[in-house]
Amino acid sequence: MAISLLRHRSDRINPSSKRLFPEPTTYMAYINSRLAPLISAEISKKGLPSDFASTIADYYLPLASEIASTAGQISTDIKSTLLVGVLGSQGSGKSTLADFLKLILEQQFNTSTVVMSLDDFYLTREQRRKLSIDIHPLLTTRGVPGTHDIELLNNTIDQLKNFDGSTPVPVPMFEKANDDRAPFKHWQNISTKPKVIILEGWCVGIRPQLEAELQIAVNDLERSMDEGAHWRRFANQELAGSYAAVFKQLDKLIALVAPNFDCVHQWRSLQEAKLRAKLERAGKSTAATMSNEQIRFFVAHYQRITEHALTSLPSYADWCLSIDETHKITGLTRSAIVEQK
User: Fold this and answer.
1) Fewest CB within 10 angstroms: 81, 204, 226, 275, which?
2) pTM confidence score
């Protein structure tokens, strides 16, 4: 089944006036019998509201259809794998989107898919400690460009694209509760060549700022701890260098666009609460999880680039999903630049 998503550039879907499926309660009729119960189970597993089915019907299914169609058009050996970026601020729902896209792509469109998170490619705590000594103290905190192992990310993407079936491809895992990379034995091993790779992350695909934009501090963190703009200039240079080289490989970019940065603290607090609850259920220590004040300090590291993304993404992302303060998707816009690619 192929679903036509958007026919004209800058087209916008408004669910109340133009539904891609007749009703959210009947959308299961449009998918195969194998996928329907898996979607219901995943909604329940993630603790999502029951009406999340309409989000899948109106947005996730059409996106998956377009991705599957594009992947099916790739026939050369060099570009036999489609690389899709999913970008969104902390807590915006990018992991949820990526997981459902994988489920739909594999079960509905028979398109093998691997999901990787940019977060899993953070430098180790020791590597970031050295950066904080050599370059700037703020680089102890994971997050900004320059705190990821881009060489490892590049190598992993290359191995997945060129997978010959002989040796599984290891994909790293980062343990946020310990703020460090997980031991190799806990990494994910991919043993099938993917037709689609989804790379999700808070700064995936973002372009660097102009030098003039770096001069004015955006918050108290920058005013008090980055007076000379050395930290933000380093992050911007990384974004323009090794990160840009990776992002240039993206065939498609999906952006979840938050209403403003003020939502990020609230969403990140919710994430931390879920992490704390997960650790408690597993009988593990929650000592390394963050307090509300620590979260506020942590998200301040992300403010500059997140706000830059919110204003610039609509001009170059292939699809922009607008979300409100409650995480509800309110619209899907296809960038006009898609027509020029």
Assistant:
1) 275
2) 0.86
